[in-house]
Design brief:
Layout (H helix, E strand, L loop, with lengths): L1 H41 L3 E5 L4 E5 L1 H6 L11 E2 H4 L3 H13 L3 E7 L2 E9 L5 E7 H37 L7 H28 L11 E3 H16 L5 E6 L8 E3 L2 H18 L5 E9 L2 E7 L7 H6 L22 H11 L3 E6 L5 E8 L2 H11 L1
């Protein structure tokens, strides 16, 4: 009996302690939620949170101002179509769910232009961050001017140093030949770094939608053009490019794009594969079009990617284990970050993985041109 009484007392004490902790955590959670909502409402950018059925669950005052809906009575659960009947916004949200990636869009609204950033969440929830391009463009212009100024200031002494290096190269002897060669190599690497920083800054400030329409561009000839530029590096090592075209439409893969930037994307991808390819091994490029997308996959026969590589290889200045590279050529550490930004500004994406049969596999998805989609559909019928 005493044992039973002790057991009941122990259970009662445990229940009271657990209930006390639950109430304390519950009050803290409610307080934190209240603070969070207060911060969101006071934010200088607009916030809009939508449930899976596109009903507004949260909107702050700045979003109402930017969307011109401050006079609309808004209650929780109101359809977005009623609150902000904007086809472009609805289409952007659908693309975000479809691709499960953040999407950006420039949207004219009254006498100003808005920048919309959509962020996918769990269970098909989506949040929308809204900013005025007026204040944003001022910040971006300041940043781009700063980068341009720094790049310009670096280019002038770099040019002078390169001329000095060339002059020294004409007067080398057995004692300083190695030092002069190293000087020239490092100056060229620094010049490449400055150019890449400037290009990456321009890409990060660009939006996927532009006022000037992009022309149709066929990828297969561009691939051949890029590889011809890399042949002087590949041929001495016996590395060759093997292009796979699954079906005849892939031979005419047409996307809407900037030719110079897509050339840079392909160059960086193939150059990266060349750095990690063993001598005498092929680099495989698979070009395939299906539905709305053109898929371009580049595979090398190198040691593959570590877990850290797969997580961070598209970050600025990230470098993998140098012992994995098969070429002694150095890079700026920005090549794959530029690839990602070019893909994003064209409405696509890039991913990295290890091929089942060995080597690294980098895959780029780009939207097909409208006329190409129609042609593919006609052929499929």
């Amino acid at each position: 009996m005493a044992a039973l009484l002790a057991l009941l007392i122990g259970l009662s004490c445990g229940w009271w302690s657990a209930r006390h902790r639950y109430l304390r955590v519950g009050r803290a959670s409610a307080l934190d939620r209240s603070r969070l909502l207060g911060w969101i409402d006071a934010a200088p950018v607009g916030w809009l949170i939508l449930d899976p059925t596109d009903h507004v669950q949260l909107v702050n005052s700045r979003a109402e101002q930017l969307l011109g809906s401050s006079g609309t009575a808004l209650s929780p659960g109101q359809p977005l179509q009623k609150f902000a009947p904007l086809p472009e916004l609805l289409g952007l949200i659908q693309d975000t769910r479809l691709r499960n990636r953040p999407q950006r869009l420039a949207l004219p609204r009254g006498d100003q232009e808005l920048e919309l950033l959509t962020l996918p969440g769990q269970e098909r929830w989506v949040s929308v961050v809204i900013q005025s391009r007026r204040s944003l463009e001022a910040q971006l212009d300041q940043q781009e001017r700063w980068v341009s100024d720094v790049a310009h200031e670096l280019r002038t002494p770099l040019t002078a140093l390169l001329l000095v290096g060339d002059s020294l190269a004409g007067q080398v002897n057995s004692r300083n030949a190695v030092l002069v060669e190293r000087l020239q190599r490092e100056l060229l690497r620094l010049q490449e770094l400055v150019n890449d920083l400037l290009e990456l800054s321009r890409l990060e400030n660009a939006l996927p939608t532009q006022s000037v329409p992009l022309p149709p561009l066929e990828l297969r000839p561009l691939v051949e053009q890029v590889w011809n530029g890399l042949r002087p590096l590949a041929d001495p090592r016996g590395v060759h490019l093997h292009v796979l075209a699954s079906q005849s439409p892939a031979d005419h893969a047409v996307v809407l794009g900037d030719a110079s930037r897509l050339h840079r994307l392909l160059y960086n991808l193939l150059d990266n594969a060349l750095r990690y390819s063993p001598d005498g091994a092929p680099i495989t490029l698979d070009l395939h079009c299906s539905g709305r997308w053109c898929r371009l996959r580049v595979r090398d026969r190198g040691p593959g990617l570590s877990a850290e590589d797969q997580e961070r290889m598209f970050e600025r200045f990230y470098r993998g284990d140098p012992s994995r590279a098969r070429s002694r050529r150095g890079g700026s550490g920005l090549g794959l970050a530029i690839v990602r930004q070019i893909a994003l500004t064209h409405g696509g994406r890039v991913e990295a993985s290890n091929h089942p049969d060995g080597g690294a596999l980098l895959e780029v998805l780009l939207p097909l041109a409208t006329e190409m989609r129609t042609d593919l559909k006609t052929r499929g019928n």
